[in-house]
Amino acid sequence: MNRIKNLRKNLGITQKQLADKLSVANSTLSYWEQGKYEPDHRNLFALADYFGVTTDYLLGKTDKPNADVKTIFITTEEFLATQGITNREHIESLKNLIDLAKANAEMDSEMDSASNSFLKKESPKKRTN
After folding, report:
1. At what angle do helices 41-51 and 2-11 cross, to 10 degrees?
2. Domain count of the chain?
3. Geometric angle at alpha carbon 93, from 91 and 96, rounded to 5°
4. Domain with 46 in it: what CATH number?
5. Are 44 and 50 in contact (CB under 8 A)?
6. pLDDT tens digits for range 5-56
7. Residue 85 in contact with residue 91, Cβ under 8 Å?
8. Phi, psi of 60 (to 5 degrees)
């Protein structure tokens, strides 16, 4: 994973600074850079986000640091039409289902954030009898 080392050095940061940012041991980062171990999925995504590159680039599957992806925006109706769904009632039902799924995902995200925040707080002192 020399790419991690190269990206880190290009930013002018030390192993310790990057390890602290990722909340991993300095030795863990050193092993990644030496290719002895690969980062787990969570850390791989964190590294890609931090450096602004793709995970494929970090893993050496491509030499392009950034994906050549063209994002296409279409309306729900256009997408459903590509699937052969043109009945107005079906379209409205599916749009409502999509909105419900989005709301549910947002609530899950908020619950995860609240849980993480709660867990990060100091735990109460143990009672001694």
Report:
1. 40
2. 2
3. 110
4. 1.10.260.40
5. no
6. 999 999 899 999 999 999 999 999 999 999 999 999 999 999 999 998 989 8
7. yes
8. 80, 15
